Amino acid sequence: MSRIRLLWHGLNVEPLRAALEAHPELWNQRTERTAAAESPHHGLSDIWARFADPATMREDGSHDSIWYPPADVLPVRDIVFPLMAGVRGTRLGGVLITRIRPGQICKPHTDPGWHARHYEKFAVQIEAAPEQAFHFEGEKLVTRPGDVYWFDNAHTHWVTNDSQRDRITMIVCIRTEGN
């Protein structure tokens, strides 16, 4: 069974791409995933648009998610809500925008914890080039801007960018009718 699946081509991501270009100050306001040298995301860039509400955090890591300030600047909801409808989403979790600069790699890893197990992961490609890929052992997916795909982050995965342009992806965590 495949651990990654392309769902759609041709989503209009230009408004989000333009907003990201107009607001570089939004990158790396939160560095919990990227600062530690041992993190597989070390040195990459993030924008947290939605994640845990600290007031609802429980001992097991479960929580409710809330919109963070970047979501008031970027048109993420315009993509997220139709995506939720398209995959028959029942609950929205985190929304994270990641950037991998030319020559960088997101190192091989699995995503542990309650949030990673509770939600399915969907990705919307904002920027991409043919020399970039999302990898699992034995398979990879090369995407274009506007591609939407699902992936199973319980398995070891990594992302390479051997191109001359940034790879920007919005990861949307959705609980669906089937899970």
Written account of the structure:
The chain is mainly beta and 179 residues long. It has a single domain, classed as B-lactam Antibiotic, Isopenicillin N Synthase, Chain (Jelly Rolls, Sandwich), CATH 2.60.120. The chain contains three helices and eleven strands; from the N terminus they run E-H-E-E-H-E-E-H-E-E-E-E-E-E. It has helices at residues 14-22, 77-86, 114-118, and strands at 4-8, 45-52, 65-67, 89-100, 105-109, 120-127, 132-136, 139-141, 148-151, 157-161, 167-176. The strands form two sheets. The protein has a seven-stranded antiparallel beta sheet with strand order 1-9-6-11-4-2-3.
What keywords describe this structure?
179 residues; mainly beta; Jelly Rolls; 7-stranded antiparallel β-sheet; 4-stranded antiparallel β-sheet; 3 helices; 11 strands
